[in-house]
């Protein structure tokens, strides 16, 4: 032993007092002990106390955790101590496992010798730290990750170093296996997890020992056979005896090792592979995979494979992943396939189905496993199995798609006999042998019927089939050359598909990143990837510079093929034209593009041509002048043709024939497409377009396509003029000229909103929204104050027209839309396209609201459709609501309540004043109000004023119009108060039984204020109240002795007059969770007969109950009093300057009623209410509840002004576990 090892030994503090001898026999068999555990973590004391040593010893656990010593030396040191004293060394090892589980306790030598294992378990359980559920194997951080590795390595090295003697002494292994078996059966996760990991690593080490023994046995057997087969004279009998003795010893050792492995497997694995904890199950499956790969002769059979197969159905993705990786290690070795045949047949369907696993990592590994099965046996998978994997190449998750691409490559696109295929290609005159594979790729793409996903297919195959996908020469040959003998002619669909795939391969090679929708963005390329990208770009440029003109010439009549081919130049390295002296190929390309422009009027083709010219005209390349000349010549010709055709069309007016219309439309489409990417302002296209639009408005007979294109071309012209002005130093004349142009165009667009043709109206609407956004007040931001003359603010007429357009064309049912499209049957794709168009229209208008270009109240007509059209536009409306609230909380709240009022008015028009409050329409308005409430957020302080404004406007609306039948009947909008209540949870059973009561909305709303106000008040003040010790129990409150104000007179009211008063309709109803609804004195009799308090028999004068209700509840209901009562008093002139507040005598309370309320809310805390003012002070200092400033100043009012409708604290946040 080296000195550091000896030093380490001393540090661990092995016992110095020699207890029993090293020859001591084991006290108990392995099955006699059971070890219990408890949850927790901690640092053990070590075993230094056993020998009485002083100092600061380090335990075996700490040595392994720190990992500073080589594991070999640590194990050698332990073996040396074991040879000196087996019990003390084993005690050190037992404490190691206990402490690795996070237990603070330490097993003493006396406990080890005198106590049963069950007693030791109970003792260790008590030492756990119950405050934490962490233990070393679950703790985060690199130190504990390293500890796990050291822990496993320690066990492996321990068995390796003991494999020749100690493990066969029938003591150490029996004790350790007994300990781990007991720990693994514990109900405590820490012990179970740690012991299972230790046992599985112990089993792996034993499997390695068994494998070595098996090899030694085979070698010994061969030596014995060779010696025995020698002739008698040369045979050495002594050697035969030695070999027989060695074989016998090896067999005995093998039997002992097998017994140990059986004990671990049956005692631990069989129970723990289905443990409740996923990590434990994963450990078992991972290790059994190691055993089967390491010692396949013993473990690779159905008796062990079945556990992996069963666990493929595990509910945790982590465990399923370990199963697949374990099987991958087996299927990688093709020699093991015969042993896996039965397993493959039994579990193949499950493995194939796991390619669609909800966990992407599991799906990837399942596809890789299926690929390995395919490599091992072509017949193992059916066509249906393969098809289940094929379609995954179109998955949006790139790792899944790449794995499926590898499978597809192995199955369809790998050449089985490259030399024979190359010879066949040469006989056919082809330069590449990939022709058949490319044809197969095209067929696969067509059969998948996902033509818009060619980029996904190419990206999936890119890593596995790059050689095939970069064979652009072969692709060009297939497109340009005639088929040779033995080849089939490509059909038109196949040619289109091949061109699309070719363009996708070019894009993938040039950009070197996945297509949109795959991956999280462009990652930084490595130096090697960057070099590959540059080489690929040069290669494709050199090839297609020559091939592209020929391809365009052949397919120039096919718009789809040409549109795809014209995307290729954007991936060129354009310096190659000049560096390689290939200007003639550039001229050929420009000639073909010109021919395409003259032959086609399809938008896709024209935009592709325009984009190609734009790329070739880049100023950084020397070819710019040559391309610019060709482009200018083309524009000149088209402009002259357009001006001439416009003159003819306007002269002939209504007599114009189809040829005249076609001439104008075809040329205008070409110019519009080019104006999108090129500055054509020097050709002054706006003038002729404006003339066409004015003529169409005046005559009303302009074809819709011409009108649409003229609008779009004029829009581009205005934008290019704005670009010139913003980039330079414009003069005042330039600004005035542009303003005149913009103003005239906006007027034309506004007139087009009333056009009979829907496409024209939609185009005009979109352009109006875009221009109003561009030329809004934001135009002068960023130091551009000089552009102030260009700012346009839409007037109210234009805003109303835009809003009406949205209501007429966006918020429509599918049936209405089908009828508007002349009864044509729409398939699913057309419906989606139509919905997308409507979403764009709505988004364009909502942007105007968000950026304060259109007045915010216009959004009320948008917000009211939130529920009805939630699936189609819910995200747009919700985002608009969020942005407008950030702009102005108060105005947003007014807009929300306005939307609810509009819905309510519509409902009144449909159903009349007698609303059915149980109808779906009323429920829909309530649900919309609830959704609005949830959008206010959790910060009640910030939203207090907005919520108050919303409720104030709602109450005003509810009492705005008097019932035409008389003042004793409820206002016609009274039912609107129910909209302000979050559902019906404040409604008691007695209320539900009397739904015919017309005053129920008022009662329900007031009760919600009472209950919600208390709750909100408590939520706001509970923190400070608890600190000052102001929380009081509901019983034992000392009565406050205050004198009642003298001069109050009792009020005698006849029954008939009480019933005739609309404020008395609620005297018999109970309010849930609050006081009984108090009697209200008629305001008609208030002038002659002042109301009087009705004393409660159980309440003494001036009791605290009076304080509670007079101060708090009156303030909660103040806004209702101001709106309802004061409005009537003011109207009749019945209130005098010094009159006392009416509700002062109306709000009665009693101790019994308060106790009822407290019993209803027995679980809620009771807090001190703010100190109340006397009656005279409240009369003099009462704030104006319609003044937001007053509400903010009065804190107590603000607190009680948060009714439960928009107080989000009443709703539990979603997804929170109370534990």
Automatic annotation (TrEMBL):
Annotated Basic and acidic residues bias: 1045-1057
Domain SCD: 269-354
Residues covered by region (Disordered): 1-52, 1011-1060
Compartments in which it is found: Nucleus; Chromosome; Chromosome, Centromere
Compositional bias per record (Low complexity), positions renumbered to this chain: 1019-1031
Subcellular location, principal: nucleus
Protein name per the record: Cohesin subunit SA
Residues forming coiled coils: 233-263
PANTHER family, sorted: COHESIN SUBUNIT SA-1, STROMAL ANTIGEN
Entry GO terms, CC: chromatin; chromosome, centromeric region; cohesin complex; nucleus
Bias (Basic residues) ranges: 1032-1044
Gene name tied to this protein: STAG1
Oligomer and partners: Part of the cohesin complex which is composed of a heterodimer between a SMC1 protein (SMC1A or SMC1B) and SMC3, which are attached via their hinge domain, and RAD21 which link them at their heads, and one STAG protein.
Protein family per UniProt: Belongs to the SCC3 family.
Keyword annotations from UniProtKB, A to Z: Cell cycle, Cell division, Chromosome, Chromosome partition, Coiled coil, Nucleus
GO MF, one example: chromatin binding
GO biological process: cell division; chromosome segregation; sister chromatid cohesion
Superkingdom per UniProt: Eukaryota
Function of the protein: Component of cohesin complex, a complex required for the cohesion of sister chromatids after DNA replication. The cohesin complex apparently forms a large proteinaceous ring within which sister chromatids can be trapped. At anaphase, the complex is cleaved and dissociates from chromatin, allowing sister chromatids to segregate.
């Amino acid at each position: 032993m080296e000195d550091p090892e000896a030093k380490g030994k001393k540090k661990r503090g092995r016992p110095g007092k020699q207890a029993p001898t090293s020859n001591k026999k084991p006290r108990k068999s392995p099955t006699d002990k059971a070890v219990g555990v408890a949850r927790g973590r901690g640092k053990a004391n070590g075993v230094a106390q056993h020998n009485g040593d002083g100092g600061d010893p380090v335990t075996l656990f700490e040595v392994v955790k720190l990992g500073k010593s080589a594991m070999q030396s640590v194990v050698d040191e332990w073996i040396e101590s074991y040879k000196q004293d087996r019990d003390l060394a084993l005690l050190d090892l037992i404490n190691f496992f206990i402490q690795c589980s996070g237990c603070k306790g330490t097993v003493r030598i006396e406990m080890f010798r005198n106590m049963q294992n069950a007693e030791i378990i109970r003792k260790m359980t008590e030492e756990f730290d119950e405050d934490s559920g962490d233990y070393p194997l679950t703790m985060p951080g690199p130190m504990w990750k390293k500890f796990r590795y050291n822990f496993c390595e320690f066990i492996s090295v321990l068995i390796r170093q003991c494999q020749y003697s100690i493990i066969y002494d029938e003591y150490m292994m029996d004790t350790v296996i007994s300990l781990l078996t007991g720990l693994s059966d514990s109900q405590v996760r820490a012990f179970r997890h740690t012991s299972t990991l230790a046992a599985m690593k112990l089993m792996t080490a034993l499997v390695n020992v068994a494998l070595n023994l098996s090899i030694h046995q085979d070698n010994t057997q061969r030596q014995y056979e060779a010696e025995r087969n020698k002739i008698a004279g040369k045979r050495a009998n002594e050697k035969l005896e030695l070999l027989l003795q060695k074989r016998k010893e090896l067999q005995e050792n093998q039997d002992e090792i097998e017994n140990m492995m059986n004990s671990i497997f049956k005692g631990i694995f069989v129970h723990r592979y289905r443990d409740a904890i996923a990590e434990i199950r994963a450990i078992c499956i991972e290790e059994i995979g190691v055993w089967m790969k390491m010692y396949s002769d013993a473990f690779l059979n159905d008796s062990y494979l079945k556990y992996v197969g069963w666990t493929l159905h595990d509910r945790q993705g982590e465990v399923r992943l370990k199963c697949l990786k374990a099987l991958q290690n087996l299927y990688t070795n093709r020699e093991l396939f015969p042993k896996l045949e039965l397993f493959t047949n039994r579990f193949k369907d499950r493995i194939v189905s796991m390619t669609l696993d909800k966990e992407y990592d599991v799906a990837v590994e399942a596809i890789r496993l299926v690929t390995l099965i395919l490599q091992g046996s072509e017949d193992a998978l059916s066509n249906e199995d393969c098809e289940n994997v094929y379609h995954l190449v179109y998955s949006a998750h790139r790792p899944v798609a790449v794995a499926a691409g590898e499978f597809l490559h192995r199955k369809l696109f790998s050449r089985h006999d490259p030399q024979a295929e190359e010879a066949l290609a040469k006989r056919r005159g082809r330069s590449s042998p990939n022709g058949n594979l490319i044809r197969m790729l095209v067929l696969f793409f067509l059969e998948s019927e996902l033509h818009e996903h060619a980029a996904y297919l190419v990206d999936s195959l890119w890593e596995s089939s790059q050689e095939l996908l970069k064979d652009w020469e072969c692709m060009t040959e297939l497109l340009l050359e005639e088929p040779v003998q033995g080849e089939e002619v490509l059909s038109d669909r196949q040619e289109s598909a091949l061109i699309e795939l070719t363009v996708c391969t070019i894009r993938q090679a040039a950009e070197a990143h996945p297509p949109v929708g795959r991956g999280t963005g462009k990652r930084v390329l490595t130096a090697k990837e960057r070099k590959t990208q540059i080489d690929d770009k040069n290669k494709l440029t050199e090839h297609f510079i020559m091939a592209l003109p020929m391809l365009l010439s052949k397919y120039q009549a096919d718009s789809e093929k040409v549109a795809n081919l014209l995307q290729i130049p954007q991936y060129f390295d354009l310096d190659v034209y000049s560096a390689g002296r290939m200007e003639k190929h550039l001229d050929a390309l420009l000639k073909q593009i010109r021919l395409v422009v003259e032959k086609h009027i399809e938008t896709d083709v024209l935009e592709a041509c325009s984009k190609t010219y734009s790329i070739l005209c880049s100023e950084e390349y020397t070819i710019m002048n040559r391309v610019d000349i060709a482009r200018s010549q083309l524009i000149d010709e088209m402009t002259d043709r357009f001006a001439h055709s416009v003159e003819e069309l306007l002269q002939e007016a209504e007599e114009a024939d189809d040829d005249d219309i076609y001439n104008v439309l075809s040329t205008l489409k070409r110019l519009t497409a080019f104006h999108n990417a090129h500055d054509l302002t020097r050709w002054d296209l706006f003038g002729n377009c404006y003339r066409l639009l004015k003529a169409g408005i005046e005559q009303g007979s302009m074809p819709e396509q011409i009108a649409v294109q003229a609008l779009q071309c004029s829009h581009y012209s205005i934008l290019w003029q704005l670009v010139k002005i913003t980039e330079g130093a414009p003069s005042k004349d330039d600004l005035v000229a542009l303003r005149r142009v913009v103003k005239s165009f906006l007027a034309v667009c506004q007139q087009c909103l009333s056009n009979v043709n829907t496409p024209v109206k939609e185009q005009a609407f979109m352009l109006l929204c875009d221009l109003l956004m561009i030329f809004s007040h934001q135009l002068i931001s960023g130091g551009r104050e000089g552009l102030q003359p260009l700012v346009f603010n839409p007037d109210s007429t234009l805003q109303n027209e835009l809003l009406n357009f949205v209501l007429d064309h966006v918020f429509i049912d599918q049936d209405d839309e089908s009828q508007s499209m002349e009864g044509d049957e729409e398939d699913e794709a057309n419906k989606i396209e139509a919905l997308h168009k409507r979403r764009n229209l709505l988004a364009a208008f909502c942007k105007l609201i968000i950026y304060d270009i259109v007045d915010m109240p216009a959004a009320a007509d948008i917000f009211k459709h939130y529920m009805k059209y939630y699936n189609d536009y819910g995200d747009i409306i919700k985002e608009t609501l969020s942005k407008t609230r950030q702009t102005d909380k108060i105005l947003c709240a007014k807009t929300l309540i306005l939307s609810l009022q509009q819905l309510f008015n519509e409902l009144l028009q449909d159903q009349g004043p007698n609303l059915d409050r149980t109808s779906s329409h009323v429920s829909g308005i309530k649900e919309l109000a609830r959704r609005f409430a949830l959008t206010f957020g959790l910060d009640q302080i910030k939203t207090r004023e907005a919520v108050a404004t919303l409720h104030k406007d709602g109450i005003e609306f509810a009492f705005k119009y008097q019932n035409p039948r008389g003042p004793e009947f409820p206002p016609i909008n009274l039912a609107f108060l129910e909209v302000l209540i979050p559902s019906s949870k404040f409604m008691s059973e007695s209320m539900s039984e009397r739904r015919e009561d017309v005053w129920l909305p008022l009662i329900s709303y007031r009760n919600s204020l009472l209950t919600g106000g208390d709750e909100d008040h408590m939520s706001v003040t509970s923190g400070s109240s608890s600190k000052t010790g102001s929380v009081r129990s509901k019983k034992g409150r000392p009565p406050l002795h205050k004198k009642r104000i003298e001069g109050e007179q009792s009020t005698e009211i006849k029954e008939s007059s009480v019933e005739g008063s609309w404020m008395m309709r609620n005297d018999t109803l109970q309010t849930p969770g609050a006081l009984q609804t108090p009697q209200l004195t008629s305001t008609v009799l208030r002038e002659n007969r002042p109301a009087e308090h009705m004393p409660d028999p159980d309440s003494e004068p001036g009791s605290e109950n009076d304080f509670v209700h007079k101060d708090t509840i009156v303030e909660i209901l103040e806004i209702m009093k101001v709106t309802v009562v004061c409005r009537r008093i003011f109207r009749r002139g019945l209130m005098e300057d010094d009159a006392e507040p009416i509700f002062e005598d109306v709000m009665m309370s009693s101790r019994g009623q308060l106790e009822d309320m407290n019993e209803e809310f027995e679980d809620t805390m009771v807090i001190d209410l703010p100190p109340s003012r006397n009656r005279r002070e409240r009369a003099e200092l009462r704030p104006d509840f319609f003044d937001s400033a007053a509400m903010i100043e009065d804190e107590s009012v603000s607190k009680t002004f948060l009714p439960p409708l928009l107080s989000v604290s009443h709703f539990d946040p979603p997804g929170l576990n109370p534990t």
